[in-house]
From TrEMBL:
The keyword Nucleotide-binding applies. Keywords: ATP-binding, Nucleotide-binding, Transport. Belongs to the ABC transporter superfamily. Gene3D superfamilies: P-loop containing nucleotide triphosphate hydrolases. PANTHER family: D,D-DIPEPTIDE TRANSPORT ATP-BINDING PROTEIN DDPF-RELATED, TRANSPORT ATP-BINDING PROTEIN. GO terms for molecular function: ATP binding. It comes from the Bacteria. NCBIfam families: oligo_HPY, PRK11308.1. This is Dipeptide ABC transporter ATP-binding protein. Residues 1-248 form the ABC transporter domain. The lineage of its organism: Bacteria, Bacillati, Bacillota, Bacilli, Bacillales. It comes from Jeotgalibacillus marinus.
Length: 323
């Protein structure tokens, strides 16, 4: 709720704060139990920062995070520890996120040791079960991460994330570093595991095509804000926000009868240290009007739970003009 993360920019000889990168700039949304919420945006849109704040890997500058109705924003570590096992993250780069000096068995067992709820023998049994669940052989536990391919390493990272029996998993671009053919295998695996373990996912990607299959709803981020958050079908078939419309127009259509014109955006992504006034997208929006330059559009429910932050929809008169 109203999450913000501002990173100070240091400058000058005494390194004082000369500005802020507004990585996440006042974001509110819900994630429902059992769903997959896809979060899409260009690099620098704040999606990783948002994910890290949700599981308290990063403290927000302002705002609250609720987990199962409980405000966890300022929970001390002692009270956070039992919740830590509920929330796990799978990172983009399994090469960097797995300690190369630990065997696969040790990597999967480590979170269970930290949680200290199982006896050593039970932990060993869990390791073997998890390896099988992610499609790896039992003898993989004696090997080291470098002995595996990228896709297999991501399977190891997933098994490690599952080892504390979490209910909520954030995938921070978990398939972005993999070959396209391997991507769908890992996505399918994540879907199977979601069904089996009743997991809730926040799935971060920079590309709308990656989250298409796996998501129930999709949030589109632009410069630290949510431009649109809606059911998957609404996002892909009837995107409302001009930025979503541009992103969708770039996704290759599988339906040849519905060829879309590719919408080209002018200019580059502005710096998050100096975001445009009013609507952050106004410098590149094909439908910009005067109000957009001064007035920040709020995320507004379209009456069906789908929400968009754009003056074309928040003002009836303008909506008619747009039509
Ligand atoms: Fe474009 Fe204005 Fe809507 Fe922003 S508020 S997306 S600039 S039309
Ligand atoms: Mg990122």
């Amino acid at each position: 709720k109203n999450l913000k993360k501002y990173f100070p920019i240091k400058g000058g000889v005494i390194q004082r704060t000369v500005g802020h990168v507004k990585a996440v700039d006042d974001i509110s949304f819900d994630i429902y139990k059992g769903e997959t919420l896809g979060v899409v945006g260009e690099s620098g849109s704040g999606k990783s920062t948002l994910g890290r704040m949700l599981i308290r890997l990063l403290d927000p500058t302002e705002g609250q995070v609720y987990f199962d109705g409980q405000d966890i924003t300022n929970l001390p570590n002692r009270k956070l520890r039992p919740l830590r096992k509920e929330m796990q993250m799978v990172f983009q780069d399994p090469y960097a996120s797995l300690n190369p000096r630990m065997s696969v068995g040790e990597l999967i067992e480590e979170p269970m040791i930290v949680q200290n709820t199982l006896k050593p023998k039970e932990r060993q049994g869990q390791v073997i079960e998890l390896l099988n669940k992610v499609g790896l052989n039992t003898d993989a536990r004696l090997k080291y991460p470098h002995e595996f391919s990228g896709g297999q390493r991501q399977r190891i990272a997933i098994a490690r994330a599952l080892s504390t029996k979490p209910t909520f998993i954030i995938g921070d671009e978990p398939v972005s570093a993999l070959d396209v053919s391997i991507q769908s295998q890992v996505l399918n695996l994540m879907e199977e595991l979601q069904d089996e373990f009743n997991l809730t996912y926040l799935f971060i990607a920079h590309d709308l095509s990656v989250v298409r299959h796996i998501s129930d709803r999709v949030a589109v981020m632009y410069l630290g804000r949510i431009a649109e958050i809606a059911q998957k079908d609404a996002i892909y078939k009837e995107p409302l926000h001009p930025y979503t419309q541009a992103l969708i127009s770039a996704v290759p259509s599988t339906d040849v009868t519905k060829k879309r014109e590719k919408i080209k955006l002018k200019g580059d992504l502005p710096s998050p240290s100096n975001p445009p006034t009013g609507c952050a997208f106004h410098t590149r929006c094909p439908k910009v009007h005067e109000r957009c330059k001064v007035d920040r559009p709020e995320l507004t429910d379209m009456g069906n739970g789908n929400m968009v932050a754009c003056h074309l929809y928040t003002n009836e008169q303008l909506q008619r003009i747009a039509e």
